[in-house]
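SAMPLE LOG
Freezer: B-3
Tube label: C17
Construct: single chain, 139 aa
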Amino acid sequence: MRRLNPVLLLAALWELVRFVLLFLLIVSLFVPRAGARSAAAYWLLFYGAGCLLMPAGMVLLLIDPARYAVVIHLVRLGKVLQAVPVVLMVLTGLAAGDVGLFGIDGLLPLAVATVVDLVFLGVLLSFRIEAAHGGGCPR
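STRUCTURE (predicted):
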């Protein structure tokens, strides 16, 4: 039996936890303002579901790293695309002399998520896989 990479397993679990926590944060900030009967939570879930590709890609790398070696590039790109907007939100909120877009309650979880995201991005950038089939793409 093949041994699973604990870093990739932890990263996949973090992506699931990150998705749920950020979704709950956004819902707690916007749905009360929009009204109790608002469908805003469903729209947020619909548009945020693309972030679930990150843990799916990491699970593919856990299952067969050599066969799905090309996926590591997409996972890295996805992590950059997740981290950059949050970093910009935090920097622009602080640069304006404000405490953030959502006040201190919203800024702290975003900052913590971004720090963890940047750590996992560093790990993903240092992660190396030997590709199967010469180029990593199944034929």
